[in-house]
Amino acid sequence: MNWYLIAEAESALWKDGQGDAAHFVNARDKYLAFIETSSPTYRAEGNLACMLAAKATLTTDDAQKSAMEDQALAHFDNALASIKAYSGPNDSSEKLSFATAFRPDANDCNKKLAELWARKRSDQSYDSVVASVPG
Predict the structure, then answer these.
(1) CA-based Rg of the chain, rounded to a whole angstrom?
(2) pTM for the whole thing?
(3) pLDDT of residue 18
């Protein structure tokens, strides 16, 4: 079963907080299942990071919010490591596609991840980290 496609569909239904919370849970669980069983994982890790960053902005409990933010950053670190290590037949186009997809202005979810990055990792620019992927 393609957990990634199911996760994408559930994520689209959740729409960064606009939809039913059950869709967030389903998308999160399917991305995690994909990450555990499939490869390459960089897109799933990146999309999960965005979702967690967006969900954290909707969370009022400080401890849950902090945990979600830490998870978001950890998954994005994994995504960055995975895409930088990726070597496949379309290596450079995949890396450029990833960098383009995770620009902060690509969508609201990425914007929230970039804002989280800026708050928690002010020593590194999110834009420059993402831009360094293809290079």
Answers:
(1) 14
(2) 0.92
(3) 73
